[in-house]
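pasting for the record
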Amino acid sequence: MAIAVENLLEEKARKFGANKSSIDFQQIVVDSTNYVLDDIENITGQTTNRITSYSSTVDLAQQLWQGTLSYGLDLYINDQGEWMIQPTSMSWDRYYDKIKTAYMRYLKTLDLKSKFGDVDDTD
């Protein structure tokens, strides 16, 4: 199941005390989401779609990636400087660890066993 950015917008508006109807805050969430998606793609090599509005969806498995995406949004929204709600000294390291852990969990869902067909012994 894909991740609905609108749900993340509502979650972050509550967390940061922002108005989810604010065009500025919506754009910050869209930009921050794309930054996180870029990080996921750069670290894991897993391609993701960039979003253009808060009504978009992210083409990653919700159960595997929503927590990581949400945490990354916190960091990038904090990085905007207007909504500082937590210290970020160790947060970036934790964020990158969350990406790597989520990717490792994703890889475990793949069937990587090679399958051999019939081999002809004819010469």
